[in-house]
Structure formats: structure tokens, C-alpha cells
Structure to design on (596 residues):
């Protein structure tokens, strides 16, 4: 049975994954070892009470040859006190070691998370990420240390108690050991039965985290559309699903405890029955029998309750397996060996026969060919969903192309290091992400070691200086999570100031003003005009002046580059797509501006 259990463990990679925990244990191996070694006397001392009962029963209760020996009860109290102190030390060391290992795993998981491409985040929801990259580490380590401690205690407790059994009666001890083996027989097969339930439970638990995140981030939408009832029903469905999974887990595991109760009661009954015969035939004394029964009960008690903590054991195994699956993930977008460093200067960027798809066999870009010279501004226009944003997302390698090439100075961007490539590209999105903290902390993300003079220059060029001066705490004002305390225009200008400090030679503006009102848009546009100076610019925008003033305009329609030229050149194409777009969309804006 033992060999079968070991084979089962190895086949399920638990053995391999536990061995892979060693790098996390190695720096703190001494404390980890001590936490385990302390468990040896904790378990072994369980036999003291059972062993002490033999002379007490024989000399005092049966023969009544001496008065109650004072040293036996005092010895029991002393040994119990020692055991209690050791348990405290073991608990402290186990918690200390467990937290250090947990933090090590979380640190590596977080580093891995930051290397994963945008496509990974497209497929995952926030609950899955939080649960799999954070909560799993807690489940793995708390289960690992607590179960190892219990295992060591139980092993040495069992060894010492079995020794007491054989000391008192080898015949009764054989009965006890056989019954113990029968009680453990179902455990080896239980893991397979609950693995699927564990997987579904993990997904369900992550759904709760997602629900809370959506309630927090989407609170205005929920309120404005009166979605409280719908969201409540969705959450109730999640809770009902978790309830069913928890009940299913109980159904699959908790039968083990009553089963073991029955098996153990058979062992105790057999020991009592056969023990009575041995006493009557003077093969053992009453003291032997009482000592034996006490040791047997101490041995069987944790066995009867094994079903209660089996879920935690299996969750620990499952979590460790999932953790190393995550750590073994190889990012699809990564540096090549001997990748080149992209310098601060470049002469041209070229898209050559670029094909791209988010979903297999559903192309988004179809053979894009485009050459952009240093200092040139290229505006991308076209119908929604045509592929404009996809083109600019490929340049910093948020995604990798399916075929073709994107080169900077004739070298494929996949041959440059990701760090140097992205260091030379600044992106201002339509909805820029601001981190919780101060305005200054968010601006300094563009350049961590920026001087005070550089910061003030960035504030001035982003038209933030007057706004910052009006705040009580100035540039050190807290802006809340995701910059919630700032208006849309203010958030855009903070992002522009950040891009100013980065001072990258390539600038991407992805509809940076489309979500703003006219007044905020005008201020942000002035900041953008400052930012665009002396840079190679890719701009997706709806504002007329930005489009008209671009060196060239690329019209993207259903993944194809259908027209390319200056505003005047494209307007001269009879029935051209740009001209049609202009007449439909931009001319109205021009008339509105004239009216104003």
C-alpha cells in the first residue's frame, strides 16, 4: 500500500513540486529544520501518559502494595508542560518559516505576472489573477508547514505509542496495527476523486474576487443603470455554486471520518475482547491492559479525525501544483538570446507585410506596409474596429505579429531587448492608468531620477502648473486609486507630464482627447502639441487639427491600409475613403469650430 501511495504521489507531480520548494526553504533551512525537529519530542511524549499508567495500575490499584507514587502524577504534569512549551515553539517557528516561504513564492509569482504579455490579461479576469497569483501561495504554504508539522508529530507519536503497545502485549499490538492499516487503505485513492472539485472550487472562489472588483470599479455604472438587483443576483448565483461545490467536497471526503470511527471501534473492541482473555489467563497484567488501551486510544484518535483536515492537505497539494505551473509559464513575448539594445536615435520605422490576429484564423491586420521617417507624424484614421489601435499596439510589442516584420532602422523589433524598445516609446492612451499615490509619484514613473527642474518643466509643458499650485499639498496631493480624485482632463495631463519626463523618441497617442469635453480637450491638445515636438508620432485622434497637420494620414479599413498621403493629397482622391470620412465626420467639427 505504501508503494502504491508513493507511486500515486509521483504520478501527480506532488513529489516533484515539493522538491521544488527547496530553493525557498534553503535560506531559512535551520529554522525550518528546527520547527520539524521540535515535533519529534512533541509526538514522542504522547507515550509518557500511557506508559506511566502500567506501574500505577499494578502497584496501586491492583496490588495496593504502595501508596500512590507522587512522582507519577507530577511527572505527567511536567512532561505535559514540556510538551506544551515545545508546541508553542513549533507553532512560532512554523508560522515564521511559512510566512517567509509564502512571501518568496508571492514575490516570484508577482515577477512572473509582470512578464506575461497583454494577451494573457485579455483572457483572464481580475479574480483569477488575484486568486492564482496570491491566494494560492497562502494555501500552499499554510497547508505545507502545518501538515508537515502534524505529519512529523503523528509519525513519532505513532512510533512511540506502537512501542508502548508492543511493550504491553505483542498480540494486541498486532491487532491494532492491522486495523490501522485497514483504516488508511481508502486514503490513497481519495485524491483522484476530489481533484476536479478542487479545480472548480478555485474558479468559483476567484469569481467572488472578480465580483467585488467589479462592484468597486463599476460602482457608478451600477448606480446609474440601477444594476444593484442584477449584480446581487449574479453574486447569489456565485455563492450558490460555491455552496454546491463545498457540499460536494464534504460528500467526497467526510465519509472517511465516520468510516475510520467504525474501523477504529472494531480495533478497540477486538483489543478489549482479546485483552480480557489475556488478563484472565495471566498473560498480561491489568496495568498492561490499561496502558495498552490508553496508548491505543491516543494512537487511533487522530486517525478517526483525518477526514476533517484532508481537504486542507489536498488543497495544499493542488495549490503547489498550480503555483509551479504558473512559475513554469514561458511568456510568448520575451527577449531573444543576444538581443540588441535600441539606442535613443532612429532614422525610420517600417511595417512590412504585417499580418495579425487576436483569434486564430480571424485576421485583424492584412498585409500592412508603412514606412515612417524620424520626426514624422502619422495619423491613423478609419472606421471603428478597422485595426488602428492594433497597429500602434504592435510597436511596443504588447502583441507580436503573426507574419511579416516591424523594423526600426532595418532591424526587427523582436531582435531588440524589450526594455530598450519600450524605453524609447511613450504611450498616451485614451484612458491612462494612474497609480494610487501622489501626482509627483505618478509623473516620476516617466523618469525615476528626474530633477526638480525637469519635473517643473514637465508640469509647465503639460499645462499642469497652475492646477498643481492651486492644491493645498501641491504636487504631493494624493489622487486616490486609479486617479479617481482627478477629472478626465487632469488625468490626461498627468499622463502627458509623465511622457514628457520619459522623453522617448517615439510617441503613440491613442485617442488621447476623445473622452474629454471641448474645454478640457483644448487644454490637453495644447499639452500634446508640446509633447509631439521633435518626435516620431503615431496618432489616433478625431480632432481635426491633429489630423490635418499630420505629415501623412493612413486610412485603415477592415485591416487594410487603403489610402496614404497628406490631408490635401487624400482630399483630391475622388470618392476616396478619407474624403468620405472627412465629409461625414470632420467637416461637421470644422463648421462647429467656425460657429464658435
Amino acid at each position: 500500500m505504501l508503494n502504491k501511495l508513493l507511486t500515486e504521489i509521483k504520478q501527480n507531480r506532488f513529489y516533484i513540486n515539493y522538491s521544488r520548494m527547496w530553493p525557498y526553504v534553503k535560506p531559512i533551512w535551520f529554522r525550518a529544520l528546527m520547527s520539524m525537529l521540535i515535533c519529534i519530542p512533541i509526538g514522542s511524549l504522547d507515550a509518557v501518559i500511557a506508559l506511566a499508567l502500567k506501574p500505577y495500575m499494578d502497584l496501586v490499584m491492583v496490588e495496593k502494595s504502595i501508596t500512590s507514587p507522587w512522582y507519577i502524577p507530577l511527572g505527567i504534569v511536567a512532561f505535559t508542560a514540556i510538551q506544551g512549551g515545545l508546541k508553542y515553539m513549533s507553532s512560532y517557528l512554523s508560522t515564521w518559516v511559512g510566512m517567509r516561504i509564502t512571501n518568496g513564492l508571492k514575490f516570484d509569482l508577482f515577477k512572473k505576472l509582470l512578464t506575461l504579455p497583454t494577451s494573457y490579461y485579455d483572457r483572464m479576469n481580475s479574480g483569477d489573477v488575484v486568486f492564482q497569483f496570491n491566494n494560492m501561495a497562502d494555501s500552499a504554504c499554510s497547508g505545507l508547514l502545518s501538515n508537515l508539522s502534524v505529519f512529523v508529530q503523528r509519525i513519532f507519536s505513532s512510533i512511540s505509542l506502537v512501542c508502548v503497545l508492543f511493550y504491553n502485549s505483542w498480540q494486541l499490538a498486532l491487532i491494532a496495527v492491522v486495523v490501522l492499516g485497514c483504516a488508511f487503505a481508502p486514503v490513497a485513492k481519495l485524491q483522484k476523486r476530489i481533484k476536479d472539485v478542487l479545480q472548480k472550487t478555485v474558479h468559483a472562489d476567484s469569481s467572488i474576487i472578480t465580483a467585488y472588483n467589479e462592484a468597486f470599479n463599476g460602482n457608478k455604472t451600477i448606480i446609474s443603470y440601477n444594476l444593484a438587483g442584477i449584480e446581487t443576483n449574479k453574486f447569489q448565483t456565485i455563492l450558490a455554486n460555491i455552496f454546491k461545490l463545498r457540499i460536494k467536497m464534504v460528500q467526497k471526503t467526510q465519509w472517511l471520518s465516520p468510516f475510520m470511527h467504525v474501523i477504529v471501534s472494531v480495533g478497540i473492541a477486538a483489543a478489549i475482547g482479546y485483552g480480557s482473555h489475556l488478563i484472565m489467563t495471566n498473560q498480561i497484567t491489568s496495568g498492561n491492559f490499561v496502558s495498552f488501551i490508553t496508548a491505543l486510544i491516543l494512537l487511533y484518535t487522530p486517525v478517526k479525525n483525518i477526514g476533517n483536515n484532508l481537504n486542507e492537505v489536498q488543497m495544499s497539494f493542488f495549490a503547489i501544483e498550480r503555483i509551479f505551473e504558473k512559475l513554469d509559464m514561458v511568456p510568448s513575448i520575451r527577449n531573444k538570446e543576444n538581443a540588441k539594445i535600441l539606442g535613443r536615435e532612429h532614422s525610420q520605422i517600417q511595417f512590412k507585410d504585417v499580418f495579425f490576429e487576436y483569434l486564430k484564423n480571424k485576421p485583424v491586420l492584412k498585409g500592412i506596409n508603412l514606412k515612417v521617417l524620424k520626426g514624422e507624424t502619422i495619423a491613423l484614421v478609419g472606421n471603428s474596429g478597422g485595426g488602428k489601435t492594433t497597429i500602434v499596439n504592435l510597436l511596443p510589442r504588447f502583441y507580436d505579429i503573426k507574419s511579416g516584420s516591424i523594423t526600426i532602422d532595418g532591424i526587427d523589433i523582436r531582435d531588440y531587448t524589450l526594455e530598450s524598445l519600450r524605453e524609447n516609446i511613450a504611450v498616451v492612451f485614451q484612458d491612462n492608468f494612474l497609480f494610487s499615490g501622489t501626482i509627483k509619484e505618478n509623473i516620476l514613473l516617466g523618469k525615476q531620477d528626474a530633477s526638480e527642474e525637469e519635473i517643473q518643466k514637465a508640469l509647465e509643458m503639460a499645462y499642469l502648473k497652475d492646477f498643481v499650485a492651486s492644491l493645498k499639498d501641491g504636487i504631493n496631493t494624493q489622487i486616490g486609486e486609479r486617479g479617481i480624485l482627478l477629472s478626465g482632463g487632469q488625468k490626461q495631463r498627468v499622463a502627458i507630464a509623465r511622457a514628457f519626463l520619459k522623453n522617448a523618441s517615439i510617441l503613440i497617442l491613442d485617442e488621447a482627447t476623445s473622452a474629454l469635453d471641448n474645454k478640457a480637450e483644448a487644454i490637453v491638445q495644447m499639452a500634446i502639441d508640446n509633447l509631439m515636438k521633435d518626435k516620431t508620432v503615431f496618432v489616433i485622434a478625431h480632432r481635426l487639427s491633429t489630423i490635418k497637420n499630420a505629415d501623412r494620414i493612413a486610412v485603415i479599413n477592415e485591416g487594410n491600409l487603403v489610402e496614404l498621403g497628406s490631408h490635401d493629397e487624400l482630399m483630391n482622391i475622388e470618392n476616396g475613403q478619407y474624403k468620405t470620412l472627412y465629409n461625414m465626420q470632420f467637416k461637421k467639427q470644422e463648421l462647429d469650430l467656425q460657429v464658435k
The radius of gyration is 35 Å.
